[in-house]
Design brief:
By secondary structure, the protein is mainly α. It contains six helices and three strands. α1 runs antiparallel to α2, α2 packs across α3 and α2 packs parallel to α4. It starts with a helix and ends with a helix.
């Protein structure tokens, strides 16, 4: 199975377990605070697994690309449990006012899991001395924004973070050749702006 396949499966499993906790809270078998604690721990564990998966996958990709055994690069990406608990509290406190409570909780769990993997993959590419840059490896059925970010397979310098959005499973494919053009300040601003717009659209959709 590919990195993306395993990540999607991890996301699905996380959603199932989080919704089970929500059902127990709704049935009165768990208090609100107990549910917050359990969900936060569960999602944090899934984030840690996504980080390890990304680090291992990148090492394998670098090994194939360089034809030399490459060890796992520690990216230093770790779950922010304080921030995670705060986010879970907000969602659980307001979720019953939405038309699809389970859908919102599920998206939260999946998106946070995917985001941890994306952060680790990008950080690993940036830290690797073997890599000069990256190309966007599009997920199947990529959205219009991801296709636009792809820029027909343009290679970006490794210090330019790959833009992403909630629920995205695109990855930065390492590029080893030298001579990649640097990114101008204007292009960085535009990339950040596009990411903000995409996040706002994702929030408005659930």
């Amino acid at each position: 199975m590919s990195y993306r396949d395993i990540l999607v499966k991890l996301g699905d499993t996380t959603v199932e377990k989080v919704l089970r906790i929500y059902d127990l809270m709704q049935a009165g078998e768990l208090t609100y605070l107990e549910a917050v604690g359990l969900m936060s721990t569960l999602i944090g564990t899934s984030q840690a697994k996504a980080v390890a998966l990304a680090e291992t996958s990148l090492a394998a990709e670098l090994t194939l690309g360089t034809r030399t055994a490459v060890g796992v690069i520690s990216t230093g990406v770790t779950p922010d449990m304080k921030k995670l608990r705060g986010g879970v509290r907000v969602v659980l406190a307001t979720v019953n006012s939405t038309p699809d409570p389970e859908g919102r909780i599920g998206r939260m769990a999946r998106n946070l899991t995917y985001a941890a993997g994306a952060d680790a993959y990008s950080e690993g590419v940036k830290r690797s001395p073997l890599v000069e840059g990256w190309e966007r490896n599009l997920e199947p059925d990529a959205c219009q924004m991801c296709v636009w970010w792809w820029r027909d397979g343009r290679a970006w310098p490794k210090d330019h973070v790959m833009p992403s959005h909630k629920g995205c499973t695109c990855t930065p494919k390492p590029v080893f050749e030298r001579g990649i053009h640097s990114v101008t300040a204007k292009a960085r601003v535009r990339s950040n702006r596009d990411r903000i717009i995409q996040d706002r659209e994702a929030k408005s959709n659930g």
